Each structure stands twice: as C-alpha cells, then as structure tokens.
Amino acid sequence: MSKDVTIAVDAMGGDGSPKKVIDGISNHYKNSKSTFYRIFGDEDQIKNLIPKTLSNNNFEIVHTKNFVKGTDTPLEAAKRGKDTSMWLAIENVKNKEADTIISAGNTGALLVISKLNLKMIENIDKPALSALWPNKKGMSVVLDLGANIECNDKNLVDFAIMGSSLFKSLFPNETAKVALLNIGSEEIKGNEVIKSTYQKLNQIHKEEQYEFKGYIEGNSLMNGEVNVIVADGFTGNVALKTAEGTANFITSELKKAMKSSLLGKISGLLSYINLNQFKQRLDPRLYNGAIFIGLDSPVIKSHGSTDYIGFSNSLSVCEKIVKGDLINKIKKNIS
Amino acid sequence: MSKDVTIAVDAMGGDGSPKKVIDGISNHYKNSKSTFYRIFGDEDQIKNLIPKTLSNNNFEIVHTKNFVKGTDTPLEAAKRGKDTSMWLAIENVKNKEADTIISAGNTGALLVISKLNLKMIENIDKPALSALWPNKKGMSVVLDLGANIECNDKNLVDFAIMGSSLFKSLFPNETAKVALLNIGSEEIKGNEVIKSTYQKLNQIHKEEQYEFKGYIEGNSLMNGEVNVIVADGFTGNVALKTAEGTANFITSELKKAMKSSLLGKISGLLSYINLNQFKQRLDPRLYNGAIFIGLDSPVIKSHGSTDYIGFSNSLSVCEKIVKGDLINKIKKNIS
C-alpha cells in the first residue's frame, strides 16, 4: 500500500469480465509497478485468473458475490445493496482508501452510485462525462457526453474548467485550448446559453489554465486547433455518436470497395500491411472509456465491449489522472 | 416554355460563377431535354459561356448587373434591392413563372429573401433546411440543418412530414422511414420536446406516408435502417458538420498512412485505381446542396464551393422535386 497510485477496480462489469479486467491489470502492471489494484468481485473466479507475474504487493481481492447487472436501471442497481462490487469499489474511494475507481459495468448505475457516495467538488454544480477523441495533432478532451441533457452557462463554464484540468493532468506539457461547440464560428450564432457562456469564458479565462479559442463547428472538431471541446450533454453525445457512426460507415464502404475485384483484393492485402499505422492511430481502444468528473474523486468508465488492452489503457488514464492531481487542479481553477 | 420543369437559376453566386453555373446547366441538359433554365445574371458574362449544344428553346437569360455578395449579411443582401440575380430568381418562382429556384450564393441571404417573397405552406410554422446523406443502403434526408435553432414538438412533426414528402418525391419507389435524432434509443431519454414529438409522431403517422421508427442515435445515422432523420437545427447542424469533419479526418489519416512507405506508395497506387468506386460512392458532389422546404416553392441551395458537376446534380434534385410534386405532397400530408 505504499504504492503511488491505488485504483479500486470493479472486476465484475462489462463483457468478458472478470477475465478481461484481470488481463487488463496484468497488461498495465507490466509498465507500471507503482500501482496498487484493489479488486472487487468474486474471489473464486478472480484468484484463478491472476497471473504469477503479478506481485502480491500490488493487489488485493475484496470478495463479494453480489454485482450490478448490465441490464439494471440505475435505481435497480442501487437497490441491489451496498455489497455489489461496484458499490464497494466506489465506497473504497469515498473512504480515501483508493485514489480512483474504474468499472467496465453499467454506465447509468456507475454515475448514480458515484453521485450517491461521493461529494461534489465545491462550486461545481453538475458532474460531466468526458472522453478522449483523436485529432490531427494528438488527442482532445470532449465533455459533456450525456450526463446532463440541459445545461446553463455556469455548467458549461464549469465543464471548460474541468475539461482543461483533465487535459493538463493527462498532457502536462501541452497547453489546454478550450472551444465551445456551436453551429457557427461567428459570435452572433448559437442559442442564448452558448452566447452567455462565450462571454463568461472570454472574461474569466486565465492564461496559465487554458486558452479560450471561442466557438468551434463540428467539421473542425478533429483538426487539432483546440483540444478541450465543451458542449451540453445532448449535443456532445450526438457529436460523439455521429463521429463513431461516420467512421464505421467509411470503414465499411472502404472494405467493400477493396473486396470488389481481384485487383482490389491484392491492393487490399498490401494496404492491410501498411494500414497498420492508420489502424493503430485510430484504434478505439486508445480512446477507451469515459471520465466522470466533478465529484471529489475521478470515476473512470471503461467501455463494456472493449478488450483487456482497452481496459489496460483505461488503467493508464486512471494513473495519469491521479499523478496529474486532477481533483486539486479543478479545485484550484474553479475558485 | 412548354417544358416539363422550369428552373429559375441565380447564375451569380458561389465560387467560379457564372461559369460553374452555366457548365452545370450544360451538363444537366445532356440528360434532361425537358428542363427550361431561366438564368438570372450578367448577360455579358453569361452569353459567352453558353455552349452551342444548349438549344435556344431550353434557356433564357434575364439580365441584371446587381448581385448579392458572399460576405453580405442577410439584411445587407435584402437591401441591395429587388434587382439582384438572387431576388429576381426568387421572384420568378413567386410569380409562378418557374417551378423552383436554385442558387450557389449566400445561404443566409437566400433563406431571408425567400422568406420575404414566398408564402409559408399552410399549417407549417417554420421552414427547414434539409440535405441528402449517404447511408449503407442508399440516401437519407436529414433536417433541420440550421434554419431553426430552437424548435417545439409541432415544428419537429412538421419536419417529419416535410422530410418524408421530400424523400418520396426524390425516391418514389422507396418507403420513407422517419426517426428522431436522440441520445438514447429508449423512450425515456431525451429532452421534453423530443419526447413529446415522439408521442405525436407515434399517434399521427400514416402508413401510406411514412413509417415512424422511433429514436435514432448518431452512431446509427448511416446504417440505412431509416432514411428521414429529424432534429432541431442546432442538433442537425452539429451532426452534419461532425460527420463531415470525421470523414475529412479519416481520409487525411488514411492518405498519411498510405504515403508513409514505399510499400505504402505502391499499395496506395493500386488502391487509388480500385478506390474509385469508394470515392464515387462518397463523392460529396452527389450530396451537394440543401433543400429549403416549408415555403410554397422549394428553394435549392448548391454549395458555393462545389464544381459544375455538383451544380448539375443539384439541378437534378430540382427536377426530381418538381416532377415528384413535393409541395403538393407536403400540403396533402400536413392536413
């Protein structure tokens, strides 16, 4: 327990758990000997999955048979009791025994049980769901992705501060550049909430925290000119999902075109070899999961459908956020 | 003037006009001898661009020196007077001398001058900007794309009716399948306006007009299960622009990967040959422009930056809409 970072891990959520979770821990451990994993779940299943390479000094299993189901509503999940692996993991953070909590389980349940157990950061009104997106120059933080359908200007300003704090804790050597997602780059467009947020961010932003770059339109989200993108949860979710859908559509059309002729098959094979770089760059496992921020501990949601590599990447995000002192950055910036 | 379709063409808007516009007309004319083009703009420039192949029976030039600039605000554009090529073209439709109007000029000006001149269709409260999107099975109509930032449930129901009427006039042999863009596919998600629209569409939809398919999330927009996608102008614009931005991002990453090695160059060359099918399928000129619906004549906006092929495709949309009797379809369906 003298490790740098302690992560409370809900081992029972998502497809292929707990195996995926334990394999993810093993993979993460290879490059990070200073992390302690407190693993919540069914010990009978988990202990057989733990590889010999994982030092006993780096993990502990907290046994429970009870767990939240993927099909539970948030209310049903909360009613399952305080001995689910998810609840216990969150409670562990609440009790300051861990620095952060990760789960690949039910998103709605995770948000609700986190809100029930953890306090809001003072002066933040609503927590937000954020994620990493690729852009031409690196990665962006985008928030909110659906935790808050309706937002006022204060909420959006909070998101800007939390998003830039998150960006800085993940990428300490880069400058956070904040933009508001809107439908026009001129000051006159957008609804009243967005216009008012624009005015506030223009007044309050401090150069040492982030640069405010004004509005951004959907077609510029990935050009890398900004790296913290702020929207209400409805708009942010539509943008994220539409980007996913477009990427899937293009990839499937590309595959169709490549398979449509003999020449296509040959060139497809060559491209396959070479496109590894392309694929690696856009591997969704790199951008796996979401970070729920605004509570006094960060809560990390790994995609339920990702594999152990994706889960391992999310553990790296946990580690960076804790080492980057995210919560204190937010507290300092919000005041 | 005994032609099937008369199109009022603003020849002076967009990049490379009037040449692009006239070349677009020539291209469209090759496959459509029954269209009459009434061309508004600077006769001195236009007449030298008209090819000999274009029969005198198929066009007429209405001379004016005045035109709306790309940088005009809508108010400035309207103040330029009633003798701009855009105003005159719209007025020609108002006077029932043409069936529809097309411009590659200033979008805001086109919307405002159209609203000043043309009546709303009875029982439609707000006109909407719609466009065509590719999907895995064909094309979808998406609306609103930015004409109305704030919408109530009545507006969204109107958009569903107008969008499905547009779809049916473009693709008479297909079934219009309407969905509401939302952030969850379950009935409980979304804001109050969307939930109320859902209830109304569920009650009023008539099988002969369209099938109502419920909610759709951004990641399913292009899977082809639905073909009429309804959103308020803010959400629709964010989705459209984000899809564009994602497509550009992926294409540029793909090019980078293909150029990064000798093997890549060879495979890139092979792919280039074969990817024509892919490119043709996703050629933005196929989806060029937007259709402003809700006024008692359709108003077609071609992208300012498209080339003559794109403009020609928009002329085909004009022709299909008129032959498909769009306005009467809407009137019949709205009542």
How does this structure look, described?
Two copies of one chain form a homodimer. Helices cover 44% and strands 17% of the residues of chain A. With 335 residues, the first copy, chain A, is an alpha/beta fold. Chain A has two domains: 164 residues, Isopropylmalate Dehydrogenase; 169 residues, 3-Layer(aba) Sandwich (Isopropylmalate Dehydrogenase), CATH 3.40.718.10. In chain A, strands 3-2-1-4-11-10-5-6-9-7-8 form an eleven-stranded mixed β-sheet, with helices on both faces. In chain A, α2 links the parallel β2 and β3. At the A-B interface, α8, α9 and α10 of A face α8, α9 and α10 of B.
Count of the domains of chain A: 2
| CATH homologous superfamily descriptor of the largest domain in chain A | Isopropylmalate Dehydrogenase
- Tell me, what's the shape of chain A? globular
Distance between the termini of chain A: 32 Å
Oligomer: homodimer
Précis, in short:
With 335 residues, chain A is an alpha/beta fold.
Fill in the keyword field for this structure.
homodimer, about 325 residues, alpha/beta, Isopropylmalate Dehydrogenase, 2 domains, 11 strands, about 45% helix, about 15% strand
Strand and helix layout:
The structure is a homodimer of 335-residue chains.
Chain A: E1 5-10, H1 19-30, E2 35-41, H2 43-47, E3 59-63, H3 74-79, H4 85-94, E4 100-103, H5 107-117, E5 128-135, E6 138-143, H6 153-170, E7 177-181, H7 192-204, E8 211-216, E9 228-230, H8 233-259, H9 262-274, H10 276-282, E10 290-293, E11 299-301, H11 308-323, H12 326-334
Parallel strand pairs in A: 1-2, 1-4, 2-3, 4-11, 6-9, 7-8, 7-9
Antiparallel strand pairs in A: 5-6, 5-10, 10-11
Helix pairs in contact in A: 1-11, 4-5, 6-7, 6-12, 8-9
